[in-house]
Design brief:
Elements: H1 3-16, H2 21-39, H3 48-53, E1 67-74, E2 81-82, E3 92-103, E4 106-115, E5 127-132, E6 146-151, E7 157-161
Antiparallel strand pairs: 1-3, 1-7, 2-3, 3-4, 5-6
Length: 199
């Protein structure tokens, strides 16, 4: 099957599974951007030998059922805390709020955080961060959990797209220091979306 027929097949498969062409192209563009960054030795988090042999990351099949609308409950007045990482580094975070949502008919909750140093930088004032674990960890996905980046919404709802969840850099290179998802952020289900484990 040549490349053009493969793309056509994937698009038709997406339609069959209830994914619009626009949404498929949005996620595919996100994946292509990640692959481009990982292939660039100047910015790639990969080890030198892995960059040399890199072709592309492995992703779960794009699934629009993992793009959900969540209710945000803001929790003002929370005290800053040191979030554990894979090293001795302990960056300062604060609990911004709690998001509640439904996936495949089951209700879940996750805490959502702000990095107090990062939000002082230009362009990151409204940045939100969800580190989480799920039942794919150590099997289909990286054992140390995955991340989702979001922005503060105007109202009390926001879109969470697990097709855009990604691995911490320490999944590719042990020299990085990565936040470990807090115990409160464990989903008792398989999030079959986003980036899979490396190798």
């Amino acid at each position: 099957m040549n490349f053009q027929y493969l793309i056509l097949f994937l698009i038709l498969f997406s339609f069959k599974n209830g994914i619009s062409q626009k949404y498929y192209q949005e996620i595919k563009a996100y994946q292509d951007t990640m692959n481009t960054e990982f292939a660039n030795p100047k910015i790639s988090p990969l080890m030198e030998d892995d960059v040399f042999h890199f072709k592309k990351l492995d992703f779960f099949t794009i699934d629009s059922s993992y793009r959900i609308i969540a209710h945000l409950k803001v929790t003002p007045g929370e005290l800053p805390f040191q979030m554990k990482t894979t090293t001795s580094r302990k960056p300062i975070y604060v609990l911004y709020g709690e998001v509640s949502f439904i996936i495949k008919g089951v209700a879940y909750k996750l805490n959502i955080y702000q990095n107090l140093d990062l939000i002082k930088k230009e362009g990151y004032k409204d940045y939100l961060f969800i580190p989480f674990n799920d039942l794919t960890n150590g099997f289909e996905s990286y054992g140390g959990g995955r991340y989702i980046d979001l922005k503060i919404p105007e109202g009390d709802s926001l879109t969470i797209d697990f097709n855009k969840c990604y691995n911490p850099y320490c999944a590719y290179n042990h020299t990085y220091s990565c936040p470990i998802p807090p115990e409160e952020n464990v989903l008792n289900c398989k999030i079959m979306a986003g980036v899979k484990k490396f190798h």
